[in-house]
Amino acid sequence: MDDPEPTEVLDAYDRVTLPREQRQSLFGNALYTNMTRSDFFGFARGALQNPIFREYWYATCPHRATLISASDEA
Fold first, then answer.
1. Would 74 be classed as within a structural domain?
2. pTM to 2 decimals?
3. How far apart are the C-alpha atoms of 21 and 42, rounded to whole Å?
4. What is the number of H-type helices and E-type strands within the chain?
5. pLDDT tens string for the chain (74 positions)?
C-alpha cells in the first residue's frame, strides 16, 4: 500500500506503529489467514524464524487469544 492512511484503521497494537510496520503486518497476516490448520503449522515453523514476522506474531497474540481455540482462526 503506497498510501499509509488506510492501514491506520487496522492499527490495534499496544504501541505506536510506523506505516512501514503496518504494511508488513498486513502482509504477514495475509500470508497465513487462508491456510488450513495443518498448512499453517508447516508455514509457521519457517515464518517465525523471521524477526519481522515474529514481532508481528507476538504483537497480535492478544487478538488471537479471544478466538475459540477449536476454530481455524485461532
1. yes
2. 0.71
3. 24
4. 4, 0
5. 566 666 565 656 666 677 788 888 888 888 888 888 889 889 999 999 999 999 888 888 888 888 888 877 76
CA distance 23 to 28: 9
- 15 belongs to a structural domain: no
Q: Which three cell numbers stand for residue 14?
A: 499496544
Structural domain harbouring 63: 23-74
E strand map for the chain: none
Q: Which residues contact 56 (CB under 8 A, 6 or more apart)?
A: 24, 25, 28, 29
Domains of the chain: total: 1
With respect to residue 70, please indicate whether it lies within any of the assigned structural domains: yes
